[in-house]
Amino acid sequence: MNDWSQALSHGTKAERRDGGTFSGNRGLQIEEGLLFEQDASGRCGVDLPEPPAHADRLGSARRRGPIGLPGLSEPQVIRHFTRLSQKNYAIDSGLYPLGSCTMKHNPRLNEKMARLPGFGDVHPLQPVSTVQGAFELIDTLAHWLKTLTGMPAVAMSPAAGAHGELCGLMSIRAALEARKETRHKVLVPESAHGTNPATAAACGFAVEAIPADARGRVDLAALKAKLGPDVAALMLTNPNTCGLFESEIIEIAKAVHEAGAYFYCDGANFNAIVGRVRPADLGVDCMHINLHKTFSTPHGGGGPGSGPVVLAESLAPYAPLPWVVHGKKGFEILEHKKGAAKKAFGRLKGNHGQMGMFVRALSYMMSHGSDGLRQVASDAVLNANYILAELGKDMSPAFPGPCMHEALFDDHFLKDTGVATLDFAKALIDEGYHPMTMYFPLVVHGALLIEPTETESKDSLDHFIAVLKALAKRAKSGDADYFHGAPYLTPRRRLDETAAARKPILRWRPEEVKEAAE
Ligand SMILES: Cc1ncc(COP(=O)(O)O)c(C=O)c1O
Fold first, then answer.
1. Contact 27/83 with Cβ under 8 angstroms?
2. I want to staple 312 with a disulfide (CB 3.0 to 4.6 A). Which of 174, 209, 285, 341 is the partner?
3. Which residue puts its alpha carbon closest to atom 16 of ligand 1?
């Protein structure tokens, strides 16, 4: 039996909500309680026969009270989760302008390939002779990554960009130990993603910040002043998180190498240069690649991710186990620190990495071809520059263009309006867009970082630009109150983000619900 009355709210509770309707619903957006609140005792999704009488063998371990699961019908559960999924804004719903996070369209062909039983059902502990096809796929993907970056080796197992950073720094540490050198500092530009300093610190290095210059690039003189015999590595993102190509990168690499340090490149933004620039030619010693950002594997929701790390000759021997190698009878795996893999720094993950992501990434590469990947980078850069140019007069670009794959604005255009970056971004939600990245990178005041990606059409960009122009005009017209109240049309309005971070309620308990309602 299905009972709407349990799911839907009405009466006094609803009147307290902002919807303005009797039910609290807005159009087809249903306002409903948690499944636990919808509980009706005795209701069940299945009709099981009474079990035959049996002897009680549990003794004192027998359950004394009810199990605490809600009584629900099958349609109630299906509708609840379907409605929840519809509340989730996604790249499949519309333009997703988050900068630095690259919410890129995931072609459905990739999904089809990843679900082929030979890939989808493969088990990491199967005998090697039965998974030669899977190893061939890993080897082919490794070949593409090495070719596109110009690097001779790649570690495939890291499960995210940040995990790749860890892999890179652990390889560097192993190489330094082999050189019998104790270098304890890692230099990280101020504009870096938070994972860079966090990884270096987690690896036991002291982190020192390098300032940005007025052009949003690494201040070369400041970098040179910090380089010395105690520096293990520079971690530099290119293109950087201001969406700019580090134009002095060759000189930077030279200075790092002259100081005896390694050049780690955060390759999360490789989607802006893939097929156009090979990091090896820039002097990079190792670099992680976020497959989800460059090669269209799904992103968000906590994974599974994939962040392979390409390595120069000097770091390749230290790559983590297991290694997939060409043997006499096909592919073999080196699982232990001996023979060719005797210098490996150890193991980062149980097995070879995220197979499903490998299939999706290779499917993307092969369906685009090398010329297509080059086009992807060009289109991503073109789209970002279109946004930067079109909004240049209405909003305030943080640095003069051109930019790479993302357009960065500061909050100068909101000066004296009473509208903050947060208010502006919240108002965008009512217009049907997920907000852009806010307040990052930290080197820019009130930053608004927009990455359209390559698949947005000119029409789609024009609509987004028109909305931003209208919002900027409204902010400048003195209508700050409107922005302070936004968003108006969402199932929930502004949440107390501090309380959510400091006092998160992660588990439903009847008392907490009662308290929250009071
Ligand atoms: C520049 C940069 N570096 C590192 C990362 C970390 O990657 P992941 O989220 O896969 O750990 C990101 C993530 O978006 C990033 O933008």
1. no
2. 285
3. 100
The reply to whether ligand 1 has any atom less than 6 angstroms from the CB of 237 is yes
Of the pLDDT bands very low, low, confident and very high (cuts 50, 70, 90), residue 27 is confident
Whole-number pLDDT of residue 51: 87
Show Cβ contacts of residue 279 under 8 Å, excluding neighbours closer than 6 positions: 149, 150, 151, 238, 265, 267, 270, 287, 310
Residue 165 phi/psi, 5-degree rounding, is -60, -45
Confirm or reject: Cβ of 162 under 6 Å from ligand 1: yes
Average pLDDT over residues 160-182: 97
8 Å CB contact between 224 and 210 = no
- Model confidence at 332: pLDDT above 70: yes
Q: What is the distance between the alpha carbons of residues 48 and 71, in angstroms, rounded to a whole number?
A: 14
Please confirm whether the linkage preceding 320 is cis (ω < 30° from 0).
Answer: no
- Is 308 in contact with 164 (CB distance < 8 Å)? yes
Which sign does the torsion angle of CA 363, 364, 365, 367 carry? positive
The C-alpha angle with vertex 252 and arms to 250 and 258, in degrees rounded to 5, equals 100
Alpha carbon of 314 to ligand 1 centroid (Å): 25
Contacts of 475 (CB under 8 A, 6+ apart): 413, 414, 417, 419, 424, 483
Of 193, 245, 291, the one to substitute when testing ligand 1's pocket (max ligand atoms within 8 A of C-beta) is 193
**Cβ neighbours, 10 Å, residue 182:** 10
User: What is the pairing mode between strands 185-189 and 206-210?
Assistant: parallel
Please give the pLDDT value at position 384.
Answer: 98
Local confidence band at 511 (pLDDT 50, 70, 90 cut-offs)? low
Let me know how long the chain is.
518
Q: What is the pTM of this model?
A: 0.90
Q: Could you tell me the maximum CA-CA distance found in the chain, to the nearest angstrom?
A: 83
Rounded Cα distance between 299 and 72, Å, is: 32
Residue pair 193/237 in contact by the 8 Å Cβ criterion: yes
Mean pLDDT of 34-51: 89
Residue 417 beta carbon below 6 angstroms from any ligand 1 atom: no
Report how far apart the first and last C-alpha atoms of the chain are (Å, whole number).
Answer: 32
Instruction: Indicate if ligand 1 lies below 6 Å from the C-beta of 160.
Output: yes
- Residue 210, pLDDT score: 97
Asked whether residue 29 carries a pLDDT value surpassing 90, the answer given is no
Alpha helices (runs of H) in 101-210, residue ranges in sequence order: 108-114, 117-120, 132-149, 161-178, 195-202
CA dist., res. 449 & res. 280, Å (int): 28
Pairing of strands 153-155, 206-210: unpaired
Looking at residue 1, its pLDDT comes to: 40
Over residues 270-320, the pLDDT tens digits come to 999 999 999 999 999 999 999 999 999 988 655 678 999 999 999 999 999
Interatomic CA distance for residues 27 and 282, integer angstroms: 54
Structure confidence at residue 2 (pLDDT): 44
Reading the block at residue 273, the tokens are 């240069």
More confident residue, 90 or 510: 90
Contact 193, 266 (CB under 8 A): yes
